[in-house]
Design goal:
5-stranded parallel sheet, binds CO-5-methoxybenzimidazolylcobamide, Methyltransferase, Methionine Synthase (B12-binding Domains), Chain A, domain 1, alpha/beta
Length: 213
């Protein structure tokens, strides 16, 4: 990994809100693509934070600061990940499920999908099944994308699918799920149409759903 990408990883780990913006701009000036900065700078930093958090060597306030640092860099990369003049290929409603406040991965999926030409309606985090159902009625999307980072909140994905069935809307949308604890097996079990392990494969899957792959 180059020095600048290493420094970006470290700035995420340190939650260094002063340095991260400038480092990201410098990395772009050095010729690194937004994807490279994301995959080889920001993501390894956040992976390390996850390991330290699990081991009890980092705590919630520090992790929150790291998350803010990552978001600051992503705000700079956003316009570069979203190309100009892309033709709209479909509409996606996105949300992190009820009880879950982790939104970085969901935001990344939204950004990449927008870059691929999807119109995104982001419902935010802690989204309950009824809110998803009402959004389907209001926005008539092609796809609902749900994200969960906690094993305890994954169940809410199943509740949302049930709520869509009860509202008679299940056949109108494809349901795509993702997030660190989510698996293809879980997707099959709850009757989702698809699972993606990362933002790029989420976009590929979404394109398949609308016949744009
Ligand atoms: Co939380 N947290 N956290 N946390 N946190 C995890 C998830 C955890 C694994 C940490 C650990 O123990 N190592 C653990 C969950 C354990 C479990 O359930 N198995 C955990 C815990 C326990 C908690 C709390 C309960 C801690 C506490 O309070 N005691 C608490 C819960 C709060 C709540 O949600 N109700 C909590 C709180 C927080 C913060 C608020 C401090 C902060 C979130 C800030 C924010 O999101 N705005 C936070 C963070 C940052 C993390 C870690 C460190 C990083 C998550 C992240 O942003 N990763 C995380 C450890 C880890 O995952 N390494 C952890 C980067 C992001 C780009 O990746 O979200 O996986 P990810 O998204 C990927 C893919 O999963 C996929 O694409 C993305 C890009 O490739 N993807 C999709 C995601 N959504 C998708 C949707 C799709 C398709 C693909 O289709 C729609």
């Amino acid at each position: 990994m180059s020095d600048i990408l290493q420094s970006i990883s470290q700035a995420v780990i340190d939650g260094d809100l002063n340095e991260i913006g400038e480092l990201t701009e410098d990395a772009l000036d050095d010729g690194n693509s937004a994807e490279t900065i994301l995959n080889e700078g920001l993501m390894p930093g956040m992976d390390y934070v996850g390991v330290e958090f699990r081991a009890g060597r980092m705590f919630v306030p520090e992790v929150l600061r790291s998350a803010r640092a990552m978001q600051t860099a992503m705000d700079i990369l956003r316009p570069l990940l979203i190309a100009d003049n892309v033709q709209m290929v479909g509409k996606i409603i996105l949300g992190t499920v009820k009880g879950d406040l982790h939104d970085i991965g969901k935001n990344l999926v939204g950004m990449m999908a927008e870059g691929a030409g999807f119109e995104i309606k982001d419902l935010g985090k802690n989204v309950d099944p009824d809110t998803f159902v009402n959004a389907v009625k209001e926005y008539e999307p092609d796809i609902i994308g749900m994200s969960a980072l906690l094993t305890t909140t994954m169940r809410s994905m199943e509740h949302t699918i049930k709520a869509l069935e009860e509202a008679g809307l299940r056949d109108r949308v494809k349901v795509m799920i993702g997030g660190a604890p989510v698996t293809q097996d879980f997707a099959n079990k709850i009757g989702a149409d698809g699972y993606a392990s990362n933002a790029s494969s989420a976009v590929e899957l979404a394109k398949q759903f609308v016949g744009a792959a």
